[in-house]
Specification:
Length: 489
Amino acid sequence: MRSACRPRGVVPFALALLGLAAVRPAPAADGPTDARPDVLFIAVDDLNDWIGCLTDDRSPLAGGHPDTHTPNLDRLAARGTLFTNAHCAAPACNPSRLAVMTGLRPSTTGLYMNRQNWYRASEDVPVLTETFKNAGYQVRAGGKLFHGGNPHETDERFWHEYFPLPSFPVPPEAQNGTANGLGKGHFDWAPLAVGDEALGDTKLVDWATGVMKEEPTDAPRFTAVGLYRPHLPWFVPQKYFDATPVDPTLPPVPGDDLKDLPPAGVRMAKPGGDHAAVTRAGQWDEAVRAYLANVRYADGQVGRLLDALDASGRADNTIIVLWGDHGWHLGEKQHWRKFTLWERATRVPLMIVAPGVNEPGSRCDAPVELTSLFPTLCDLCGVPPEGEFDAPSLRPLLADPNAAWEHVAVTTHGRGNTSVRGPRFRLIQYKDGSRELYDHAADPGEHDNLLHDGKNRPAAADLARRLPTDYAPNAPADKNRPNRRPPGR
């Protein structure tokens, strides 16, 4: 029998009552009887902070990227609140997504890594879409929302309708190898000689826009769309490569950047892995260009969703949430992909439009984490939670981006390895007790570990108090999931 709550949660049941009428306009005489706001919930896989609205002039790549092109993400951010210091609960798809869907950190669920079974870890806790479904919302979802690859992904417990993410085309040269010649599985990139209509995300958005065109019913709508690009492999139509510079700005990577890391940090960086292969092959430019081309494609799909919402006539009573599940390294710390506790892997795009609550064009610099999305949506929509949460609702920051905020963003990668990000400093503590400390006011690229400097001990001690005091045992492995995702997916 499933439990109704978790004893380790910190957010009380009553939070949903705080803003019950905040985004609920009076229904029209001939309108739906349930005027609670709709929700458009957009997840973008592997999207780091290389988007226009997060560009930071302090450093070439402290945030954003000079060669990125994201007009639709930027216009969405301009409609609501952009969280400039938002972080994932884990720098990997599986645990990050489960934290969003349960409001619980990996240290509570025990789901720390991609190969663990997210369904088993969620059996005894309420899930976001399930809670809204039980509260009378019409919940329809498509694409990558959980980690996928599990037969329970289509479970009616989570939604009324689920549209699986279609596969993506693969260039001919990658059919029996890799298009880039590196021979590293789906760590691959190349332009496609096809149009947008052939791509899985395009078909997903076709489905989602069709949902938005349907006639309204009495039930409010919760529409969740999980875009897959810019996840590897980076195969998108040629036009997106053509629109991206062939010599894009590369991340600054000092040759001695790992010298002040403890051994656990060096092992996490894996300097002899992907980065060595990319630089040895002279493909750093090509890889960064391919990532930016995929971001450009994903941005276009976000634009299609916004256009469909605006055409539906329901935008004024629709909460929009867009989030990336974790960041992505493209050479920083001599590392590629996610799977680290540094800024590039933990920082994510997060933007929320809450009509009647937040002001368009708001920016919030407080440290927040994606684990807060579940309580935030319950709070905004007047949906009573069926359990408790490990992070607070963001509603106070939506109402006032400068409101007092005593919370931090906690990110865990593997049992016992955790980063705590505050307004200025980041503390990383590894399972063996070794640590790193970075000052983002002076060092946004996290090149200098400050723990050798005694004057920063108070900052480290303050963040250390926010580390988890206990880590749940590892959740079981997922035997249904292959170790490698097939090419094109």
